[in-house]
Amino acid sequence: MIGPVARTDAAVARAGGQVFRALPGQVQLALLALGVLIAISACSVAWLDYQSYTPSPNVCRHDQVTQAAALGCVPPQPIPAPAGFER
């Protein structure tokens, strides 16, 4: 499945490159500047959004539970079953 998709993506990229090269130089430069401006804006928004990120705890694997204190990881906690649910 990935083969046909990769070929299609490559064909679309080639066609887009041909269309871009057919444009006048000033239009190419304007599109490139606009793309860089959009990329800088997107990175700035992502960076500002990342400021409130708190990392999740380092959860131990099942075979590391006995050494949790030495490894600095948190043992997994059992998830309580929802009300009215039986196993």
From TrEMBL:
The keyword Transmembrane applies. The keyword Membrane applies. Keywords: Membrane, Transmembrane, Transmembrane helix. It comes from the Bacteria. The chain crosses the membrane at residues 29-48. This is Uncharacterized protein.
